[in-house]
Amino acid sequence: ALDISKLRATSGLITLDVGFKNTGSTTSNVTFLDGEKGILRHRGYSIEDLAEKSSFLEVAYLLIYGELPDAQTFENWSSRIMKHSLVHEDIRKIFDGFPSTAHPMGVLSSLVTSLTAFHPESIDPNRDSAAIDLTIVRLLAKLPTLAAWSFKNSQGLPLEYPNAKNDYVSNFMQMMFKNKHMDYDVDPVIMDAMNKLLILHADHEQNCSAATVRVVGSSLSSLYVAVSAGINALWGSLHGGANQAVIEMLETIQADGGNIDKFIAKAKDKNDPFRLMGFGHRVYKNFDPRSRIIKKAADDILDRLGVNDPLLDIAKKLEDIALTDPYFVEKKLYPNVDFYSGIIYKALGFPTEMFTVLFALGRLPGWIAQWKESREMVQPISRPRQVYTGETHRAYPEDRTVA
Ligand code: ACO
């Protein structure tokens, strides 16, 4: 195998690949992706099998430790995680400082960084593996609590504490939707859909946020700090923020009288910055295997919940037109996972601003696996070069006076 710690910097020749479209930044054993054939596998297992047969926490274990857990290992793993799901009471004081209008992604990334204050030993990424494991367990355990609390904060509602007796997904749903006046029973169909959605987002090799986590981790930053940076990278509308942008785009089309052709034309117009949100992918050029699974899940859940949402009709029409329009066909722009996930989240009652937070919950095991792998590989600090195109040497004006 390639020992990347032995690779030495070369001087002289610099390759330029803006956006890293064709540049591998690392070797990795975590996720295999073939964009032409539409294949996605984690540690060798197909995404189809994992989404159908595993729970989210099993997939998290697989990504982080390389194997599916046996029954006893899983029991220990999940009960350990649930035991750590409470956050320090002083974190509530930090919540009090955020206005209720704060976007939950900003709140989430700030709070993940603030975990270093409550668990300062996590700052050193070179501890023994038991200490690293504890940091990993804490992060997986606390992110749903922080996510649900940032939602409650945005609604001005009292925070709901985690319940270690619940499983991971239903605990999160309870913290989101239960309150002092209303119980929330988690429907098994909703549980199944949530597990699937989280699994489908769990890792995607060197995407923008995972690459960010590795870059930040390469300077020997702690796991919490690297994941906080990943959350911020995910927030943008060209990445995880697309799931929120999809629903906002559908709402705009609806408010504009449902004129889909007009928006298709805008997306094709080179002078118009508008893009069809939820279409296209850097790597998948035939189809996104996650979209197939999620599309079916969307149909099942909408049937089950009896949802009748005019935005869904717009989404379906948009999908039909784009799939046959020569512009989208020639450029191989297909609906990606974000096109459908927002539709399901909306049907489940999540407010639009929480959609990208749900993506972050799903992507967390991937970020952890990527950070852990890069540390184990003793990856050198990430430090790309550039091709300078600015002014060459200029003489400082002698007669310049400072105002
Ligand atoms: N609508 C209209 N045109 C598009 C779209 C779109 N959604 N996506 C790409 N194109 C066009 C571009 O204008 C470009 O045209 P050109 O070759 O004539 O200049 C061509 O298709 C290639 O697009 P790039 O931006 O070069 O492709 P890139 O790989 O850099 O970008 C991306 C991929 C960011 C996903 C892009 O397709 C996009 O902006 N999609 C919409 C946002 C979105 O859905 N993001 C979620 C991605 S999936 C995820 O993060 C889980």
Automatic annotation (TrEMBL):
Catalytic residues, chain numbering: 281, 338
What the entry lists under SUPFAM superfamilies is as follows:
Citrate synthase (SSF48256)
Reaction(s) catalysed by this chain, per the record, are: oxaloacetate + acetyl-CoA + H2O = citrate + CoA + H(+)
Gene Ontology cellular-component terms for this entry are: cytoplasm
Keywords noted in UniProt: Transferase, Tricarboxylic acid cycle
Q: In which pathway does it act?
A: Carbohydrate metabolism; tricarboxylic acid cycle; isocitrate from oxaloacetate: step 1/2
One Gene Ontology term of the molecular function aspect? citrate synthase activity
- What Pfam families does its record include? Citrate_synt (PF00285)
- List GO BP terms, alphabetically: tricarboxylic acid cycle
Family label: Belongs to the citrate synthase family.
Please identify the protein, giving its name as recorded: Citrate synthase
Q: What organism is listed for this UniProt entry?
A: Sediminitomix flava
Organism lineage string:
Bacteria, Pseudomonadati, Bacteroidota, Cytophagia, Cytophagales
